[in-house]
Amino acid sequence: MLEEVRSLGFEYAELGHNTRISLLEGILDAVKNGVVKISSVHNFCPLPVGVDHSAPNIFQFSSDDPRERERAINQTRKTMEMAARLGAPLMVTHFGSIQIHDYSTKLLPLVKARLQNTPRYERILMEVNEYLEIAKDAWYERSCQALEELIPTARELGIKIGIENREGLEELPLDADFQFLFKKYQNPEVVYWHDTGHAQIKENYGFINQFFHIDNLCARMYGLHVHDCTYPNGDHCPPGEGTVDYELLKPLIKPEHLKVMELNPFVEAERLVKGFEHLRNIWGNE
Asked: Is residue 95 part of a domain?
């Protein structure tokens, strides 16, 4: 896998949350032999024992089950240790979620019909926002407590904790709360990790404007997952195949930002290369 990444011209790769323990020996050998470098790892990496499929939310910091929270923290420590072992500077992680009704499914038919500006949609949107604000506190606080437990480990290992924006309406932090989170945790180990496809989905739903969302968090942004999104929620496709406006985002994306293409595993190599060229033609070589 890593040799294929290298053959396509990429010097770095991110290890995702579908990395099985059985693959680690080969990955470590590939890194040791200079086949590829690891830019970042995505929690949980490797997969927890007994889990055989991609499951980044299998254990959540926000859970009201103490055993699940403890497993989430322990597995995250293992991911950070793996990042340090591989020489990766950053771990991407999900922050948790609120257990609520599935509003995304309720809104999706209206979004598909492009009815976001109708009174019915605006009424549901207001209901969702109000409910999320009322319901979030206990879930959010538990995630914050987990983060406080993980910061010393990140400091000791020299790893950044990249908190990722999510596409689910119920996932934490709520988009408006990122600034408050980073004001509360000014630790250099805690950084923002942006995802272009997730943000585009949220923009399609009417929750954020992707440009202003990045602009507000740019000072704490370490890097981003780059992928496109076909309307309204078909993400993880190559840049240029969807509606993400990379030209608009260009002034906000700096050379020092880590950039990781996060594509559907079924994307063919030709489409991947074409998407990378599309992105490079807009953002440049950095």
From this structure: yes
Q: How far apart are CA 10 and CA 4, in angstroms?
A: 9
Q: Is residue 108 part of a domain?
A: no
CATH of the domain at 265: 3.20.20.150
Cβ burial of 4 (10 Å; 0-12, 13-18, 19+) is: exposed
Predicted confidence pLDDT, tens digits, the chain (286 residues): 777 878 888 899 999 998 999 888 999 999 999 999 999 999 999 999 888 888 899 999 999 999 999 999 999 999 999 999 999 999 999 999 998 877 888 899 999 999 999 999 999 899 999 999 999 999 999 999 999 999 999 999 999 999 999 999 999 999 999 999 999 999 999 999 999 999 999 999 999 999 999 999 999 999 999 999 999 999 999 999 999 999 999 999 999 999 999 999 899 999 999 999 999 999 998 7
Domain membership of residue 165 as a residue range? 2-101+130-283
* 112 within a domain of the structure (yes/no): no
CA distances from 279 to 96, 153, 273, 286 (A): 31, 35, 10, 10
User: Model pTM greater than 0.90?
Assistant: yes
